[in-house]
């Protein structure tokens, strides 16, 4: 299993456009090897967006990145900055967080140097794969 954590900054002038384009990531549901994704805005920094996703394997994730990723991301090009992304191999499947707020502050799966803002999750950005 492969866990992906991504954070980025969305300037206030681009927030509505970014959020609308984020709705398009629901298409992940049909991507082979995709398990789930949750996403939202940082509680203490309204310009910071974060997403956490689980993939069945590195090859499944790599196939997605080489294939449909750029098409899904196209609607958000130019609407964000300061992207930070981490991939972490995990041994077992991790259940999709079923919470309104995602807190990763004490999570040992991510290095301490990785920004981990507490997120207020957007229910419409919760996506489940067919795996």
UniProtKB/TrEMBL annotation:
<feature type="domain" description="DUF4937">
    <location>
        <begin position="2"/>
        <end position="84"/>
    </location>
</feature>
<dbReference type="Pfam" id="PF16291">
    <property type="entry name" value="DUF4937"/>
</dbReference>
<protein>
    <submittedName>
        <fullName>DUF4937 domain-containing protein</fullName>
    </submittedName>
</protein>
<dbReference type="InterPro" id="IPR011008">
    <property type="entry name" value="Dimeric_a/b-barrel"/>
</dbReference>
<dbReference type="InterPro" id="IPR032555">
    <property type="entry name" value="DUF4937"/>
</dbReference>
């Amino acid at each position: 299993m492969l866990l992906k954590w991504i954070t980025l900054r969305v300037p206030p002038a681009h927030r509505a456009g970014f959020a609308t384009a984020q709705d398009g990531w629901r298409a992940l549901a049909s991507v082979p090897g995709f398990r789930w994704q949750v996403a939202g805005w940082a509680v203490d920094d309204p310009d910071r967006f974060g997403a956490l996703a689980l993939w069945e394997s590195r090859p499944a994730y790599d196939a997605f990145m080489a294939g449909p990723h750029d098409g899904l991301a196209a609607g958000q090009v130019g609407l964000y900055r300061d992207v930070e992304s981490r991939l972490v191999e995990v041994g077992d499947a991790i259940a999709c967080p079923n919470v309104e707020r995602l807190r990763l502050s004490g999570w040992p799966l991510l290095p301490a140097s990785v920004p981990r803002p507490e997120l207020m999750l957007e229910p419409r950005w919760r996506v489940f794969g067919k795996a």
